[in-house]
Structures are given as structure tokens and as C-alpha cells.
Prior knowledge:
The structure holds two protein chains of two kinds. Chain A is α/β, with parallel strands linked by helices. Helix content of chain A is 58%, strand content 7%.
Amino acid sequence: MTARLALIRATAVLTAVLGVNYIAWRWLDSVRWAVWWIAVPLVVAETYSLIDSLLFGLTVWRLRPRGQPPPPPEDATVDVFIATYNEPVDLVMHTARAASQITYPHQTWILDDGNRPELRKQAEAEGIGWIARSPDWIGRPRHAKAGNLNNALLATRGEFLLVLDADQVPEPKILDRTLGYFRDESMAIVQTPQVFTNVPESDPLGCKAPLFYGPIQQGKDGWNAAFFCGSNAVLRRDALMRLGISGYVRAVEAGVNRALRAADAVLAKARSELGPDQARLETALRQLASEIARARSELRHGGALAEVTYQFQRRAEVIARQLVEEDVAGLAADLLAIEELTTSARHEPGGLSMLDDTALRKLAQRDWSPLGAVESVRTLLSAIDVDRADEAQALMPLATISVTEDMATCMRLHATGWKTAYHHETLVLGLAPDDLASMLTQRLRWAQGTMQVMFQENPLLAKGLTIPQRLMYWATMWSYLSGFATVVYLAAPVIYLFTGIIPVRAFSGAFFIRLIPFLIVNQLLFFVVGRGMRTWRGQQYSLTLFPVWINAVTSAFNSVYNGRSLAFVVTPKARPGHAGRPWRLVKYQLIAAALLTAGMVSGIIRAAAGYAATTTTIINLIWALFDLLILSVIIPAVRYPGYQPAKDNEQ
Amino acid sequence: MMEFPTRTLDNGVQVIRPVQRLNMVAAPRLSAAVESLITAGHARIVIDLSGIEFIDSSGLGALVSCLKKARQAGGDLRISGPTAHVQTILKLTNLDRVLQPVPTAEIAAAAF
Lengths: 651, 112
């Protein structure tokens, strides 16, 4: 163990001991139950923060700097994917050219979800591959970037893939520095940092993530839980394809079982809704119900899914075939009657007599089957099959359950025993969002995606993960719940300064002697872990963006449980400064700041008039001032005119 | 319940336009609608198929039975504007040799 790691561990233990001591005392001995409506939220928020801190301590416990990578294999085949949707053609081409310059032999592909002829032309002129969605995707869920990558996975064949976002420009040596890790046969992903060239030193939008792309990822790596972050990572195709196959089997099994379970109700309802003129269909649906019962029993007795569904589909076709033959017989009879009526012989007679078996079979097949006349039955029929007709591809290697496909995919890989690595070397230079609106949209998307995974495949419950891996995923999810705690931290001093109500028994010596040491060692832990790097901006934003975090939790909850789409914030494209400053984007923060300021005025007046104790008022004034200091980050953020390299150099 | 918008062209031809799916559920309703037109004395009918996304054997049966009824009443029935799917199935069954589709209802009506 290095001296640094020993120091980190010592500080982490100290933080944990002091933190648990403080929170235990808070719960047992200092909650002012009479004002439970603020006292309980506050102690819960503090407990939340302690758990956050404990999870951070656990994360850095096995901090693992990887050092020099092993040499790359000699004969690996690699595809470089540049995922784009609507970024400017020039920007995509700039990245693609840099990707072509990567020294290790590879093929560069532009994955153009915007299907732009101009981009295709330019790419092909320079010998760069261009891939758009196959026609299979028409009319089916597109699954955003995950869908784009899944489409490309089936169109290419390299053993490894380097995934890059359109604005992430790779260094020529990137593959030489990362492929070596795949000498370990169980290595699935190697992630490298995201570093931005368009962020000034002051980082007004908090885009730099030195703690995450550093100690946090290295810490997760120590527990074999380094995260895949969607770009700047190399992936092993085989690992993804296996994930796709197991995902396919699971989805098909679940889908067929669900359909078979629901089938009786669906058919009964369909029959009850048929009119009196639908006797034939009624009989057919009755027959179908008995075939479904048969399929169910076959599966129960160990029949293979593919075989049972195949036989079921054939028998459904037999039922449909009867209907078709009746229809055709009636049709032929009608035609005969028409012929007898017609003297002019304008039409060529006897067309239907030529109807062969192929045509009859086709008319009875699922796509054209008369059984599909009832919408719910049509859906049912297609669900009792193994072709995953509702998706463009049977195999979806990149997880599609979340708008952040990276985290969900990575977790599934870890759950099936794969390894990942975090290689801490800048090998890609990218662009960060450089206006407030885009930054907020991006953070919202990350948070929403993380919450979607939390609700659907909670790492604490998922099979196959080690306990530390569960906690590493949980730590990230937990940190996105901070919005609720922040509201309490903002409200508590405001409530006191206006009303004199305090949520704790007393802001006494006993209180501070427990709290202050904890706060100090907690900051010390950040300092030791970050080796003095600036983490203040990140801390400011994690609190200041509380409306974003709360929005993410509620919208992801609604998307998972109520089937509502994630209402994305529409990003205004105009640069701030041109059309006024975007103050409305931070209205909740402004309201909070106004309440804190008004509270401070009120608190001073109340103390001066003798309504409030001076010491307690001062403590709450400091607390409010600290909250304001945190929130103050919105001012440079709103005023930020975007990155201006020239001006930056002058300074 | 599927409704069938109907309009009358200048020369008195009735144009009926079913939409979406002409299947086992909708077919009897189309037959009934055409029959009531015929009963009301309109035996020259165009079925405008431009809004039909899907047709099955029952739908085809309904088209032919409507043709029969129109002929029996001394009129005729034409079809117009079939979508790609409908054309495929007409061809597959050779029905296009009996009911030759034309691009629009107006062209179909002009030939009466």
C-alpha cells in the first residue's frame, strides 16, 4: 500500500467514525420533535449526506492508479465509432480525420443517426466508413445513441470498438495505450478520461470533473467497477454480443410468458367486443384460445421456447387458413355470379381460380392473417414468438432501458463477470457544453438516465454483482438524490431567520463539538483524495443544481412507472448574451437566493429587536451566507458568453 | 366503430373511403355501407382505397361481394388509389384482373 493510499484510508475511517458519531447523536439526542416538519427532514438530509460521504470513502478505499498499460496485442481488429446525430458536418469530419490518424490499424466509421447525404459524401471521399440506421428501424423504437451503436455493431466486425462522441477528438496513440488491457480475456471495457479544450480555468459551468475522471473512477476501478461513460472508451465486441444474446433470451422468455399469461383475458375481451356479424371470427378466437392453452402446457412441461412458439404460430396459421379459405370460396362464388351477370366481358374472368397454395399460405401468415382483425389479438400473436418483432434487431447489446445506455450496459457486463478498467491518461480532447442551457440539459439527461437504471435494474438487487460493485453503482445513484437534501439545507436557516424555529434542541457546544470535526475531516478527505485539486466548483454545482436533480428523479420515475416520456428541456440554440441572459433557467436558485437574503435581513432585525437569540441568529446567518456562497455560482454561469479562446489568452 | 366518409361526384357516382384496416372486423361494415348506398338507388360506386393500410382475405371478399351487389343492381363498382400493400395483395390473388385499380376516384368515376 502506498503512503497516499494509507493516508486516504486513515482519513476515510476518521470521517466515518466522526460522521456516524454525529448522526447517531443527532437522531438520539438532538432532534426537536415538537417541530418535526423541519426537524425530521433536516436530520434525514444530514443522514443522506453522511451516507454519501461513507460511500465516497468506500470508493476511494481501493484507489487504483493503473500506471503504464500493457503493450497492445499485435493483430487485433478495431472499429472506431464516431456517434453523431445533429452535430455540424465539419465538426464530425474533424473528429473523423483525427480518428483516421490513429496509429494502430483500424477502420473508422461515422455512425450518422441524422442520415445526412452531405456527411456521407465527405466521409466516403476520404475513405471513412459511414453507417446509418438499417431499414429495420423504420417504425420501431430508435433507442437514441444505444440504438445507433447497436445498429453499427451488426454492420461491422472488429474485435474491439473505440466509441467516440462527435466532439471528442482522439490522439493517434489512443489504441496503443488502451488495447493492451484486453490481453486479459475477461476485460470488457477500458475507459479513458473526458477532458475539454473549451473550458476556461474558472470553469463557470462546472464541466470539468477532476474528481470523477480521477480518484472516483480509479476508486471504482479498485473494486472492478470502473464505469463506462459513453465516449472515449474501448469495448470488446464479444462481451457486448454475449450481453446482447443473453438479453435477447431474457426478453423473449419474459415477453412470451407475459403474453401467454395475458392471452386468456385478451381473447375473452376481444370476443366480448365482437358484433353479432362476427360469428366466424368468434369461433376462430375460441380455437386460438385452446391453442394458447396448449402452448402454455407445452412450455410448462419443458418444451423449448423456439419450438413451442413455432408450433403455436403454425397452428394459428391453420386457424387463419380456414378463415382465408372460407373468404376465398365466398369470393370465388361471388365472382362466378358476377361473370353470369356480365355480358360485356370487360373483365378477364376466372382470375381467382388460379389462386395457388403459396398465395393462400401467405394470406394466412401472421402479417396478413384475418385473426389480426382485432388489434389486441394481433399484438398477442406477434408477442408469442421469438423474433422480437417489436424491436429493430433481436440483439440489443447496448442496453436500451435508459437514456444513459453506458451505465446500464456496464452494470450488466459487471453482473455477468466481465472486468472493466479505467486508464487515467488524456487520450481524447473534447468539447464541453458552453452555455448554461446546454449544460443543464446534459446534466438532466445524465441524472435521468441514472435514475432510470436505479428504478429498473437496481444494483442493490441485481444478480451477479459483488457487494462492493453494488455499492459503487449505488454511490453514483445516491449522489443524484441530493436535490431533496439541498432543499432542506436551504430552507432550515430561512425558517429560523423568519420565525425563530430551530430544528435542533440547541445550537450548543455539544452540537458543534460533534459537527465541526466531521465537516473538517470530510473536506480533508476530498483534499487528500484530490491532492489539492479544485473540487469547490463541483461541490457548488452538486448543491446548486438541486432543481435539475429533483426534476430528474420525478421525470425518470414517471417514465419508468407511468410510461410518460422524459420531457427533455428544449435547449435554446441562441447563445446567451444575444437574446438576453437566461435567468429563467435558474429561477428556483434565484428564488432560494432571494429568500435567504430576505431571511438574513429579517434575522438581523429580529435579533436587534430582541426576538431572537444573538448566537443562534449568527449561526443561522453564517449558514444562510454559506448557502448564498454556494448558489453564487449561477451568476458567472448565466453571464458566461461561451468560450472565447482569444480573450482567454489575453488574460 | 369505423365510419366510411362518402361523397358524391358530379356525375352522381358515389365515392366511399374506408381508412386504416380493411379486415375481418371492418369488412362486414363496408359491405353494409355499400349495400345501403345501393338500396338508396346509388349503384355506381367507387371504393377509394387510398386510406387503407392493410387488407386481409375478408377485406378482399368484401370488395368482391360489393362488386357483385352493384352489378346485380345494374351498376358497377371500381376501386381507386390502392396503397403499396393493397396492390401487393391484389396482385398476389390475381384480383387485380377483376378489380383493376386506377389512381384516383375521379378517374374511376369518369369511366362509368
